[in-house]
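ok so i was messing around last nite and threw this chain in just to see what happens. nothing serious, just curious
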Amino acid sequence: MDRLLKNVLIIFYFLVLCAPLVFAQESITITTYYPSPYGSYNALQTSRLGVGDNNADGNLTSADVPTTNGDAWFRGNVGIGTITPSAKLQINSSGNVDTLNISSSTNTHYTQIIQNNGGGGLGLLVRTGSAAGAGASFKVATSDEATTRLWVGNNGFVGIGTAVPHSKFSVMQTINGLTTGLQFSGHHTPGVAAGGIINAFDSDGTTARHLTLQLNAGNVGIGNLIPAFKLTVNGSAWCLAGAWTGSDLRWKKDITTLDNPLARLLRLRGVKYDWRREEFKENNFPEGRQIGMIAQEVEKEFPELIIEDKEGYKAIAYDRFTAVLLEALKAQQEEIEGLKEELSSIRSMLNK
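result:
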């Protein structure tokens, strides 16, 4: 009985003295495979992890292990889905599986790097699940998403300074209520042939001003989105040095003199008028009373001086009126010379 009690006391003292060593956390440095030569573990849990000689002193010590719980250090390359990583971090996946997802706790904002998305072959996809980012494949914005810096839409449109690019590439900036922008588009615009378009504009929310270049046709529009001619200006133009129109004889054929210009000119009228600016704001008509002619009236006498745009609005080539006026003046001068001859004859008869 005494011997049994003695053994019990020995076991009790052993447990009291060794228990802290058995159950205490310990820092383990693994320098070889364990169990040797290879090992398989169903689970491995640690508060800190250090892999490799992180301080490069040639020794594996506690100095190679992070001091903050939850941290991990890796000296070499890290491979996920591969045992031969060739970069500091290499992630391999196969099939229609996301390679990397980084998301918020609510999964409303997330970044995905995708190897293959249903055969789409996407390489990098950064998007947000919030309403502010709907339709975005890539977005750079302020933290509250109130201001978009860079936007790449699911439709392939790219916007800088805008989350609603209206073309393949749009750059926009708004300062003090005035929005300026530059757009590059390859889309078909109603009224013109499909092709590249460059459009620079500014807008105060009410009136928009445009400078448009149609690359396919070589047309330029100032204040006009759909220039139908090499140069279309909605508004007034100012030229200090004059404008020249090619008129070389070597470019012309079937030349004839204008027929009966004076009588036709006398059937026309000069008018004063006001532009209907409120109904046609996009035309940028100038203010104040104007002097000119009516295109439909001129067309009846000189159709060669009238041209129409794609919407059927007519314009007058006022510069070509010089030829009409020249021949009308000559015709009038002939009449004056004839009257002078008649008057001279009458005077001669009266003096006899």
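not much to say yet. The first strand starts at residue 49 and ends at 51.
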